[in-house]
Design goal:
By secondary structure, the chain is of the alpha+beta class. It contains eight helices and 69 strands. The strands form 17 sheets. Strands 65-66-67-69-68 form a five-stranded mixed β-sheet. Helix 2 packs antiparallel against helix 3 (784-811) and helix 5 (855-875) runs antiparallel to helix 7. The chain is elongated and about 195 Å long. The chain starts with 9 loop residues before the first strand and ends with a helix.
């Protein structure tokens, strides 16, 4: 079934593009979507834009690379003329177990690599290479090796058939009795029809299904593959074949491909078909929904100005600047216009009327009509006119828009009737029967009385109208600089469709509403499709947009095809064709460089991290806080149309606006943890299948670390404490100094007071005592009353003297020691009990713990135990009174104990002496215990010795 005479879309990559060598033998694709291409000059890696090459110089065992396969870790296995090599991304490992040509390699779902060498099957796992025998025939020759999408291995053996590896066992194909009669060179299981097998033999292409083998195409074929639309691709010795349910197309040098032999066919992750040729490099088939007719198909000029349907089915007429042409049955031929004028070949407009006539408007070459049999001139005007547009209205009248104005044609007399002098470029009949005339200065409306009135739409004033169309109740105006204006005549509402809404250009040359309600728009920079429901622009596919300048009013629908005339030929879109969705792009990070701004030491302060370093969190010193991230997005369908969005989590939460560059530079990034994410975006907004990312941490400078901050905090606290300590110490020193001075003054005062008191009061008391004795001698001994008074005076003087002795003792600074106090109390006790039948004993044991007491402490202790001794003498009726003082564990215990009759606690508490003792004990923070029973009474005072010593006279 022959194909149409048209050019097909292939993108060729050869040595000029960076391919290592033009004889391509095998293709595979890694997980990053990079293509790996084996050639007879080495290995190439292609990311959609750039090639990088690996040869024997890089460690490959031989430059004759014949086969490729990819393992689970993206290791590239290469079959060469000297055996097998493996490339891990950094270096090659060469295996000597196979020294002959390795022409085929595949990897199973378990990760085992299988290959063919000298028609023998082998498998390898790097450590061990083992040759296999499937049929137990020592002369077994394997002619083909295949792996399906699930990783299942299959082989074709000459005169044996096809075998599948399942659960480590080889299972024969059910039709091997028939298959063994074919020399099978390539095969695969149909992805869309279960249990259907396609295979190549020396006779051609065959299929095996339902127990039957059928031949499809005969020829010398080498490889086969199936695309995403279930069509079959065949690599031949003279190009490639494309088999669908309805046609067989031979791609060769005449229609956009090559006549060279095809060694391999590969379908990538985006459903692109790649063809490896022997000598012409690598080709990618661009499965577009349009074809182009230009000079290569027979047109004399690629500038197609107008289009019309022919008189027969599937016949299209094309008006060009090189004449009038007819496309029919896949062939293009010229239609002669019977005129000697050269201008008659400049066809500007074609039009089909109701009677199936074809009208031909030329630039200064006349107006012609073809009725299916002959061509006739339709005007007798002598002056030259450029016919821009023709319209047959609902009444059958022919309207002509020309450079000389708007005319009505008198078909009978072949005369033109002038209606308007405005230069016209477009005509349209409204639903109400008016004629709209598009001019260089807006739109004019011609009514039934041929009155010409400007259409009052402010958006059209001053605009050049290039085309017009109707969609439901709306009228659409295509302008030269403002896009499309949609006018709803009923409501008066307008809507503008321009580049902001997604239009390729605001220069709109042609419009057509097809049978599906899609508005086809030819602009100055390509073709757009618009939904007439909401007039939203349909986004283009992910493939590269066709950048062409469309011509004015050169648009036509013929069944499911839309023809558009452009400056590069006639573009024919198949609106009903199915274009499989291309896959999503893939993106990965190549490297990360951290550097310091100090240019003089940049080499010393720069760190580069490669892709394999980015799996974990990378740590960067704070000096190198300028980050450059290099990444690569792979979208083989349209590499040039790829954009990127990124964000730096830690500084940003939202992705950035789209950018086109493949590196990002972040300067002066503050310390902290960040995650960089980048994704690729296609031209129609499809995001990449992944978002490449890595996490890094910029360590803070030492003065921003927690330890340093803690150190500073502790240091500040210590300084504050030191300052407080110094202040307190200074205050304490001042206080001690003041106290010392005060004590010294007190010492002097006390000493002086004691001396003065002793000298003055003592003398006075002595004198009173002497005078009383003199007075007593002068009184009669019988006068007992007077002598009694004198005796009382002597007793009071003596008591006052004894009290004065205590005061004097206390005032004397040398008696401030605890030992002196206890000794004074002991002497007081001896003196009190000296003339009594009560025995007084003392038991003092300080364990060398002595110290000075304040005057207040000394006075209160003295008064407590003088009162205790006095009470014992007065009330106890005891035989023995014991005064004791001990120091144990820093506690001073002073006690007065007797063996008398005791004293009830209630009675004791009523006495002023006991109350005074308790009050004095509280003053010195001491604890006073009074125990009394029938066997005696004990008064014990406990006080912390350090507390006692700390109290000072202030």
């Amino acid at each position: 079934m022959p194909g149409f005479s048209q050019r097909y879309n292939f993108r060729q990559y050869d040595i000029e593009d960076g391919l290592t060598q033009s004889q391509v033998t095998s293709i595979t694709q890694d997980s990053k979507r990079r293509l790996w291409i084996a050639t007879l000059g080495g290995l190439s890696c292609f990311n959609g834009k750039l090639f990088c090459s690996y040869t024997k110089t890089n460690g490959l065992n031989n430059n004759f690379a014949l086969a490729l396969s990819l393992d689970k870790n993206d290791g590239i296995w290469v079959g060469t003329a000297r055996g097998v090599s493996k490339f891990n991304g950094q270096k090659f490992n060469n295996y000597k177990q196979t020294k002959d040509w390795v022409g085929k390699l595949v990897t199973s779902h378990t990760g085992t690599v299988y290959g063919l060498s000298s028609a023998k099957l082998f498998k390898t796992n790097e450590a061990v290479t083992e040759f296999l025998n499937i049929t137990k025939d020592e002369d077994e020759n394997v002619s083909a090796l295949k792996v399906d999408d699930e990783g299942k291995i299959a082989v074709a053996i000459i005169r044996k058939g096809i075998f599948y590896l399942e659960n480590e066992k080889w299972r024969p194909h059910p039709l091997n009795d028939q298959l063994k009669n074919f020399f099978i060179t390539d095969f695969f299981s149909d992805r869309f029809h279960k249990n259907k097998l396609w295979f190549l033999s020396v006779e051609g292409l065959h299929s095996a299904e339902n127990g039957k083998i059928s031949q499809y195409v005969s020829g010398k074929f080498r490889v086969i593959e199936q695309d995403a639309k279930s069509n079959i691709w065949i690599g031949a010795t003279n190009g490639a074949y494309y088999l669908t349910d309805t046609e067989l197309i031979h791609f060769n040098g005449k229609n956009g491909f090559s006549n060279n032999m095809v060694n391999a066919i590969f379908r990538d992750a985006e459903n692109n078909i790649w063809l490896a040729t022997d000598g012409a490099g690598l080709f990618r088939f661009i499965d577009r929904n349009y074809v182009i007719f230009d000079e290569s198909q027979g047109l004399r000029s690629k500038i197609v100005m107008s289009l019309a349907k022919g008189h027969a089915q599937d016949e299209i007429w094309m008006g060009t600047y090189g004449g009038l042409f007819q496309y029919k049955s896949g062939q293009i031929k010229e239609i002669k216009i019977p005129s000697d004028q050269e201008d008659s070949k400049n066809v500007i407009f074609l039009y089909n009327d109701r009677e199936k006539n074809i009208w031909i408007g030329t630039m200064y070459g006349g107006l012609w009509r073809h009725n299916g049999k002959r061509m006739e001139l339709m005007t007798k005007d002598q002056h030259a006119i450029a016919y821009n547009t023709i319209l047959e209205d609902s009444q059958g009248r022919i309207w002509l828009s020309t450079d000389a104005g708007c005319f009505l044609l008198d078909k009978k007399n072949k005369r033109l009737k002038s209606i308007s002098k405005q230069f016209g470029s477009a005509l349209l009949e409204t639903n109400q029967g008016e004629i709209l005339l598009g001019t260089e200065d807006g739109v004019y409306m011609i009514n039934s009385r041929y009155e010409v009135v400007r259409l009052k739409l402010p958006q059209l004033t001053g605009s050049s109208i290039l085309c017009m169309a109707k969609s439901g109740g709306a009228i659409l105006f295509g302008t030269s600089d403002n896009g499309i204006l949609v006018w709803d005549r009923k409501t008066g509402n307008t809507q503008v469709i321009n580049t902001r809404a997604g239009l390729a250009s605001d220069h709109v040359y042609s419009m057509l509403v097809d049978d599906q309600g899609i508005l086809w728009t030819g602009t100055g920079k390509g073709v757009n499709k618009i939904k007439t429901g909401d007039f939203s622009v349909i986004k283009n596919s992910n493939e590269q947009s066709l950048l062409v300048e469309c011509n004015q009013n050169a648009i036509l629908q013929d069944k499911n095809k839309v023809w558009i005339g452009t400056t590069k030929g006639a573009i024919v879109y198949n609106s009903a064709s199915y274009i499989p969705k291309s896959g999503k792009p893939y993106i990965y990070i190549n490297s990360v460089t951290a550097f310091a701004q100090n240019k003089g030491q940049q080499q010393k302060q720069q760190t580069t991290f490669q892709a394999n370093d980015l799996g974990s969190i990378i740590s960067i010193p704070y000096q190198q806080n300028n980050i450059i991230v290099n990444f690569t997005g792979i979208f083989l369908t349209n590499p040039e149309g790829l954009l990127y969005q990124y964000r730096l989590i830690g500084l940003d939460t939202k992705f950035s606006e789209t950018i086109s560059n493949t590196s990002m530079n972040f300067t002066s990034v503050p310390p902290g943890r960040y995650t960089f994410q980048v994704k690729a975006i296609t031209k129609n907004g499809t995001s990449s299948v992944n978002a490449a990312s890595f996490t890094f941490e910029i360590s803070p400078p030492y003065y921003q670390t927690g330890i340093f901050r803690l150190f500073i905090f502790v240091l500040i606290v210590l300084l504050i404490l030191l300052a407080v300590y110094i202040i307190i110490n200074l205050k304490e020193r001042k206080r001690k100094l003041r106290l010392k001075i005060k004590l010294e003054e007190q010492f002097k005062v006390r000493k002086q007071t004691a001396e003065d008191f002793h000298d003055d009061l003592g003398n006075k008391l002595t004198r009173i005592s002497v005078l009383s004795e003199v007075l007593s001698s002068m009184i009669d001994e019988k006068d007992t009353e007077k002598r009694s008074i004198i005796l009382k005076i002597n007793d009071n003087v003596n008591e006052l003297y004894r009290g004065t002795k205590d005061i004097l003792w206390s005032l004397n600074p040398k008696n401030d020691k605890l030992s002196e106090l206890l000794e004074h109390i002991r002497e007081f006790g001896k003196e009190m009990f000296n003339s009594t039948p009560i025995r007084f004993e003392d038991r003092i044991q300080l364990n060398n713990q002595d110290g000075k007491l304040s005057l207040d402490m000394s006075r209160n202790l003295l008064m407590i135990f003088k009162e205790a001794i006095h009470n014992a003498l007065k009330h106890s009726k005891a035989g023995v009174v014991i005064f004791s003082a001990t120091v144990q564990d820093g506690i001073l215990e002073i006690a007065v104990k007797d063996d008398g009759q005791g004293l009830s606690t209630a009675a004791s508490m009523d006495g002023h002496g006991i109350n005074n003792m308790n009050v004095r004990a509280q003053r010195i923070n001491a604890k006073l215990n009074i125990n009394s029973n029938h066997s005696g009474m004990e008064i014990m005072l406990r006080v912390n010795l350090s507390t006692l010593m700390r109290a000072k006279n202030v």
